[in-house]
Amino acid sequence: MLPGAVHVSASKVIHCCHCGGPVRVSTRAISVSCPHCHQRVALESVVVRGPYSGRSLITCGDVLIEETGRVTVPVRAQNVTVHGIIKAPVVAIDTLNVASSGRIFGDVQAGRLNVADGGSVAGACRIVSSPRPSPAQQADGPARPAPVEAALPSTLPTTQHGSSAPVLRPVPHNPVRRPRGV
Length: 182
Ligand SMILES: [Zn+2]
Fold this sequence. Notes:
Elements: E1 11-15, E2 22-26, E3 31-33, E4 40-42, E5 46-48, E6 57-58, E7 62-65, E8 70-71, E9 75-82, E10 85-86, E11 90-98, E12 103-105, E13 108-115, E14 120-122, E15 125-127, H1 135-138
Parallel strand pairs: 5-7, 6-9, 7-9, 8-10, 9-11, 10-12, 11-13, 12-14, 13-15
Antiparallel strand pairs: 1-2, 3-4
Bound molecules: zinc ion (ZN).
């Protein structure tokens, strides 16, 4: 934390890394209790150098995997930046950044995904704009045909009555035909 950088907004809204609910926290807090799921929400940012030996890597702060970092447990954080290697699923509630040296062997879910040239993600990618997608939107059912937006209107005001003019005339300028006097 930079000295003197305390006059920014005193609170911010984060999304609980357990339930996804919005939580207003002080910018200087290191953990809060989520009002939605009542779990402890760690807010510290974590930097991983070398092999990570913890059982899980879950924080509502940010996670930075340095080039030497090796993580084999699931990662869940607000923003995840990967310069090293993760061999586990990764969830970034906000943004997942995979640097050119970064490699992820596992499924990822993020609000935004940035992969630099050379970076790789070997797994399924799910980009979700909302931290709490509704189950209906996430159902993996058969894709329903979307309504065709550009459907031709079936009630064109055709003026076919009586005007059986041949249509083979080359008409360079197609004047606007107005239905006359009906
Ligand atoms: Zn929660």
